[in-house]
C-alpha cells in the first residue's frame, strides 16, 4: 500500500488591495417583517375605465393601492373606487380616505392657490 503524501501549504500574505479583490463581497441582510408597499395611482384626465383596468392589473402584484387625485379629478377618483368595488372586485375594502389641501403658486396672479386633494386607500 503506497504512503499518502502529506502536503503542507504555506499561508501567503497578500497586500490589502489584492485581498480585497479576492475576498467575496457579502452584504449583511437584516431580517425584518415584510412591509406591504402600496401601489400609487395618480388620477388625471384619461378616461375612467383606463384607471379601472390599470388598478385591476395592479391588484395581481400589490394588495394595497392608493388612489390619489386633486382638484377637478377628485370625482373621478371616487368613481374609480366605486366601479371597482361594485362591478369588478366585490371583496374590495376601502381602508382609508384622506382629504386635504395643497397650496400652489399661481403663475398668472403670483399668489398662492389652495387645491383640494384626496387619497383613497383600497385593499383586496
In brief:
The chain is an alpha+beta fold. It has three helices and four strands; from the N terminus they run αβαβαββ.
List keywords for this structure.
single chain; alpha+beta; Translation Initiation Factor IF3; four-stranded mixed sheet; 3 helices; 27% helix
Give a topology summary:
Layout: H1 16-22, E1 39-42, H2 48-58, E2 64-70, H3 74-88, E3 93-105, E4 112-123
Parallel strand pairs: 1-2
Antiparallel strand pairs: 2-4, 3-4
Which class best fits the helix and strand makeup? alpha+beta
Oligomer state equals single chain
The amount of helix comes to 25-40%
Radius of gyration: 29 Å
Beta fraction of the residues?
25-35%
Work out the count of structural domains: 1
* CATH classification class: Alpha Beta
Low-confidence stretches: none
Q: CATH fold name, please? A: Translation Initiation Factor IF3
Major sheet summary line: 4 strands, mixed
Q: Shape from CA axes? A: flat
CATH homologous superfamily caption: Alba-like domain
| Head-to-tail CA distance between termini | 73 Å
Q: Average pLDDT across residues? A: 80
Number of helices: 3
E-strand count: 4
The CATH architecture: 2-Layer Sandwich
Query: From N to C, what is the helix and strand string?
Result: HEHEHEE
Amino acid at each position: 500500500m503506497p504512503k499518502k503524501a502529506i502536503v503542507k501549504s504555506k499561508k501567503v500574505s497578500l497586500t490589502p488591495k489584492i485581498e480585497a479583490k479576492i475576498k467575496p463581497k457579502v452584504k449583511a441582510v437584516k431580517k425584518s417583517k415584510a412591509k406591504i408597499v402600496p401601489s400609487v395611482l395618480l388620477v388625471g384626465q384619461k378616461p375612467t375605465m383606463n384607471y379601472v383596468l390599470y388598478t385591476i392589473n395592479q391588484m395581481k402584484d400589490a394588495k394595497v393601492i392608493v388612489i390619489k387625485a386633486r382638484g377637478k379629478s377628485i370625482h373621478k377618483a371616487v368613481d374609480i373606487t366605486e366601479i371597482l368595488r361594485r362591478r369588478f372586485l366585490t371583496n374590495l375594502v376601502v381602508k382609508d380616505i384622506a382629504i386635504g389641501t395643497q397650496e400652489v403658486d399661481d403663475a398668472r396672479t403670483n399668489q398662492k392657490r389652495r387645491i383640494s386633494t384626496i387619497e383613497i386607500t383600497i385593499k383586496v
